[in-house]
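Quick one:
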Amino acid sequence: MKRLLLALGLGAALSAGAIELSHQNPVLPDFHADPEIMYSNKTGKYYIYSTTDGMPGWGGYYFQVFSSPDMAEWTLEGTMLDLKSDQVPWATGNAWAPAIIERKEGDGYKYYFYYSGHSPEADKKQIGVAVADDPVGPFVDLGHPIVKDSPTGRGQQIDVDVFEDPVSGKYYLYWGNGYMAVAELEDSLTAIKDGTVQVITPKGGTLETYAFREAPYVFYRNGLYYFMWSVDDTGSPNYHVAYGTSDSPTGPIRVAEPCTILQQDPSREIYGTAHNSVINIPGTDEWVIVYHRINKDYIDPGKGPGIHRQVCVDRMEFNADGSIKPVRPL
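Output:
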C-alpha cells in the first residue's frame, strides 16, 4: 500500500505502535525534493522517491531511490529511472515529483511509478508511468505519457499523486499546476478511464492562505478524504501546505479553517516547507508528514532557493473533530 507505516528511530518504537521522532532534519543527504514514501510488503523495507535537486532550471533528469529497514538510516539504492536513457523514449528531462503504489497481483507484487517529464515532441511537461516487480526496479516505462494535456487548457502536467480508495477499491490519479485534476485509473493502472477527468481546484484563497498552486496529495481517515496541496512558489520561503476535506475522492473540497498546517519558521531558519506526502502507521492513529524545505544557506533569491531543497519528516496530529493540527517543523 502507498499509505504506509513510518518508524523513525528504534524498532521497539515500531512494535509498540508509537513514533519516536529522534531524527534530525533533513533525513536524506544532498538536495532532494517532492518526496514520496512507500512501504513494500514484498521486502519489508521503506523507500523514498524524490525529485533530484540542485540542478539549474529544475533540470534533474533521473530518479533515485533510498531504502531503509527501520526508517532510521537510509541507503541509496541507485538510479531507478533515467529520462535521458532508453528507459523513457518519450521524455528527455525535468524528472519531477513522483508517486508510487504497490499492488498485490497473483503471487507477487507490482509497483506503478508515476512521474513528470519533459516531452520534446509536445514541448511541455507530461505525466508517464513505469512498472516493476521490485521497489528499486528495473522499471519498464509504458512508452508514452498517460496525461498529455491540461483539462483547463493551461498549466503544466506535473506533481502527480496516486490513491487507492479504501471504500470503493478504485484507483485515482491527481495532478496539476495552477489547477487540481483527478481521474480514475483503468484496472491496468497504466491508463486513465475515459470520461473521468475532473477539475476540483479549491476555489479562492490568497498566497497567505490556500490559493492552490500544485502538489495535490490525498489520504483517507475516519470516513473523510483529506486533500492537501502547496501554496505559492517552490522557491518562496512562504511555500506552505494547506488542506481541506471531502466525502468523496473526487471532491468537492471543503477548505479547512484554519487551512495552513505546515509553514516556514524564520526564527529557526526553516523556510519553504511544502510539497508533502503523508504516512499512517497501520493499526494506530499515528501520522507523519514528509515534505521538503529550502536549505537555509540558499534562501537568498540570488542563490537559487527553488532548486536547493531537502527532505524532512515530522509528526502530524489531529484534533478530536478530525481537523489537522498545525505541524511544528523540526
